[in-house]
């Protein structure tokens, strides 16, 4: 790494006097994997991202005009099949958002990961503290939050970012014009209500005060902790598609693509491809 | 490979007499890349897939009730910025679908690719001929096609599968209950109207007879050939998000995720991550 730093100095103006930057680990000229190309570089992902926010806006307009009886928050103890949802009463309307790779693209952090830097919790913590200078708002996100404001629907942010970095996260959302976010008011971070990364306890807390008409996230755990129960990969996919969840996608639960990190990335060949859908390709020997 | 086949025979009933299968190239016990895990194994992708079809159904119901003046087919010669669209007149309503990884998940073929078998055109041709036994309908697709039927909206299939395999493709769509598809009627394949893989000429042909209210695909080329004009990766993403296209995602143009193959998978670090959004991570040296 030292050698690479010195070589870089020949190219960069001000290198001799500026604080020495921690360079991107690009010495090996890595080929970016398809997941990064898709998520951060492609028009296709941009299209999916905007689709989610457009669908949210249309859905929120409809719910603002026709109040639902129930929220889209799965009730405590409910299974996902024939799920029960917390009632709305006459509470004000809200939408619950995840933050990372949902409202915000973490370009600065992910460029280093794409270049081969392995994940470290301590670095992610520095990234949270670094705030909003190397991030961008997700395509469509500002437009959706503006639309919710016009509809008098409150945005709630539920993230597993650290509570100790709450001020930096609030500032980042402000800077991206996605705020205001206020910790313990409409911003709920890791451990704020219960220990652990599950978000159900925070959703239930929010649902005491609001009628949550929609949730938006890039991980199934942004919708219900039931998806993070231990289960085989094919069963989890079936649970997402064929349970009560199946009817909610694009109709109360709005999902953003993320093939780069998270709970979607599990399984080997036998988990991902059903045994009865293998192709023998007899023609290969002709 | 021979050695692997013999070892497999110890495990599989009927191996001695059955036609020798071309095995999955699994001898090296490959780790499946995140793109395959996401697309074919995850509940997250299932959720995105269902979202697209749910959004399509809602949109089609609205357009069946309120006929649009214009189709969503970009007019010949129109740029994507302030795009012009072909008029509907009083033509019957239709929706144009791509097939592969849009209406159909090619599990049998992609299991082999995920296991490391490199792409070959001849194998893909055998796969087209093999038809519908090792594929499944995309989650949500049958439901959407049924809904269109109820609305008297015609599905049109525009695919770059080979015209010489049209009968097998028709049979596959029938078997998956996604048809009926009839070549040169509502099924348009590679080269049917003009040479090359561009789909504009086929869209314009379809728009002579139908008011195309929606298009559905996993590649930006399923919506306009303009996205396949030579241009830098960041410009293509901007074109998808900020041109007239930006307003169509989820509102006439419906996109399915595909981080596994296709036009989304381009670019190196410098194409994908803007230079002004790099993170120096000064804390790494503290």
- Span between termini of chain A: 52 Å
Strand order of the largest sheet of chain A: 7-6-3-8-9
| Main sheet makeup of chain A | 5 strands, parallel
Cα Rg of chain A:
21 Å
The most extensive contact between chains is: A-B, 93 and 93 residues
Q: What would you call the quaternary organization?
A: homodimer
β-strand amount of chain A: 5-15%
DSSP helix fraction of chain A: 25-40%
Q: What is the N-to-C order of secondary-structure elements of chain A (H for helix, E for strand)? A: HHHEEEEHHEHEHEHEHEH
Strand segment tally of chain A: 9
Summarize the structure.
The structure is a homodimer of 286-residue chains. In chain A, 35% of the residues lie in helices and 14% in strands.
What does the model show?
- 2 copies of one chain form a homodimer.
- The relative contact order of chain A is 0.15.
- Chain A is an alpha/beta fold and 286 residues long.
- In chain A, helix 9 (233-242) links the parallel strand 8 (211-217) and strand 9.
- The first copy, chain A, is built from 10 helices and 9 strands.
- Helices cover 35% and strands 14% of the residues of chain A.
- In chain A, the strands form 3 sheets. Chain A has a 5-stranded parallel β-sheet, sandwiched between helices. Chain A has a two-stranded antiparallel ribbon with strand order 1-2.
- Chain A has helices spanning 2-9, 34-41, 43-65, 107-114, 121-130, 141-150, 166-175, 200-209, 233-242, 269-272; strands at 70-74, 85-87, 93-97, 104-105, 136-137, 154-162, 187-190, 211-217, 253-255.
- At the A-B interface, helix 2, helix 3, helix 4, helix 5 and helix 9 of A face helix 2, helix 3, helix 4, helix 5 and helix 9 of B.
